[in-house]
Target: Ribonucleoside-diphosphate reductase subunit beta
Amino acid sequence: MTDSANTRFVPPSPPQTGTFKAPEPAAPKAAPPPAKAENTSVQTPPESSTLNSKKSSRDPAIASSLNRVTIGNKAPHADDIRIIGGKNYDVRQPVPIKYPAVREHFLSARNNFWTPHEIAMGDDKIQWNTGDLTEEEIWMFKCNISYLTASDNLVPDNLDNAILAQITASEMRQYMRWQIAEESNHIESYFFILESFGLDEKGQGQIFSLYQDVPELVNKLNWNLDFTNNVVNCEHPQGSREANRALMEDLISYYVFEYLFFPLGFSQVFALARQGKLRNTAQQYQYIWRDENLHAINGRWMILQIIRENPELWDASMQVRTREIINEAVKLETAFGSACMPNGGIPGLSVKSYTQYAQLMGDNLLKTLGLNPLFNIKEHPMSWLSEYEMKQEVNFFEGRVRDYRVGSSLDWD
Ligand SMILES: [Fe+2]
Ligand SMILES: [Fe+2]
Model:
């Protein structure tokens, strides 16, 4: 093992009782930690926490699913179609396909469909119940699955409440609806994992509720929620610079979820699997990661296409703001890592490596948007993660490279 955690790891203190306690006291459930992130650069939540409490005014010329169908409404012309802000056509028309790449994403995603219940969980159940995991590993895993489950709620909530209504390209709307179903499938996976361990509803609930108890989890989730609410509660007209700016920031935060927060979270469980622990769970996470990869690919494609179509949105101030957002995200991820591993790491994964991985992904994200890196991490601190990355199923444009059948065993190459 080359990871520095192997030399730095300090075994946790023996528990005082048979019940595992958090290494650091969590805020009591009755008085949850404040929703506002301590990070001073994180935005202040809006006064109203109710999504959809206020709608931005709509321009009736902008294509919208709320626009009434009218007799004689012409089919869209490809030149008129835009990812956002397309005008004077009915958004329900599936043709012409302006963006074949997005349809390709949809078909690839559909080819990747999988179900959590088809992955055997028996080995993990034994390990979970026979003390194979250290208390530090258990704490990390509990924080991990709680955060990821809440995240897989926030992503579709963001798509549903803030983003989809702004999208004026039929194929992108179709893709996002499929994505929402996939995020739901991920929640089922997390639920199935804990259920497979033999935990009853109370036991599952104690784990899932950690996202409401641990400040670092609360802060990270609220950071994303604030971007969603900024779009939903924007008082400027749809299509205005201010409204598009709020949307662009939200899309960057959405891209952070898919490209940075999720892979970082998965890496914690892959580190366990690498030590021979919770390998069934890691297999579930591998399938989820493959989905999130495609979400990130589509998210990046969408942001770049919006910039192409609306270059004024990608001005100097937005580029500066994007770098700020990524910096905030990396800080939040680092704090999350420390909360999950309060003693500096577990065997095979140190907080130091985890932090560098977050910085590396932050830099890579910036580069994919044509921006300069912030951290200049030269080498992947956890290059072994590639062993856990699954290939995308090839879409129909290229033909399938292997026979993937829903209901078959879920082995991969
Ligand atoms: Fe997901
Ligand atoms: Fe996703």
Notes: Residues 98-388 form a domain with the Ribonucleotide Reductase, subunit A fold (CATH 1.10.620.20). The chain is about 50% helix and 0% strand. The chain has a mean pLDDT of 85.
